[in-house]
Amino acid sequence: MNRKQRRASGTPSYVPGPPSGEARDLRIVYGAGCTYWGDIYSIQTLPLGGHRMPACPHCRGMLYEQESEAAWMERVTAFAEQTNDSQYVAFMRWNKGRACLSLRPEQGGDTAFERLRAQFDAEARS
User: What pTM, to 2 d.p., does this model score?
Assistant: First the structure.
């Protein structure tokens, strides 16, 4: 594995993939201005100054990345423990890859996660 395949934490961001020998990229992305999160293969790209920028597959908003789903879920679990929310990890797993809601206040973003959580809770009860 070369240095380009290692993240700052020292963990690999690529692992051997299918038998063809291709590497699978483990990174996940999450919305900077929306509730989307999913694997790196789910993104859209937008032209910007001769380059292609990653974007949310639903709203085309900017994305952040995390080195792997395992690292993402560590942060999700830490938040769940910190807030004493026993269903938060399940909620975030449920939300993976779903169409996003905007986090922009003028688009109701201040309640986006609350609305998603209500939908998750309703589905869990049924």
Answer: 0.75
Which band of pLDDT confidence, cut at 50, 70 and 90, is reported for residue 108?
confident
Contact 35, 112 (CB under 8 A): yes
Residue-by-residue DSSP string for 13-55 = SEEE-STT-PEEE--EEEESSBS-EEEGGG-EEEEETTEEEEE
- Least Cα distance to 97 among 72, 74, 77 occurs for 72
Residue 20 has pLDDT above 70, yes or no: no
Q: One-letter amino acid identity for 72?
A: W
Token pair 């399940």: residue: 90
Which positions ≥6 away from 59 have C-beta within 8 Å?
A: 31, 33, 34, 36, 100, 102
CA angle 13, 39, 16 (to 5 degrees): 40
Phi, psi of 68 (to 5 degrees): -165, 165
pLDDT for 5 equals 41
Could you count the other beta carbons within 10 Å of the beta carbon of residue 9? Answer: 10
80, 39 contact by CB (below 8 A): no
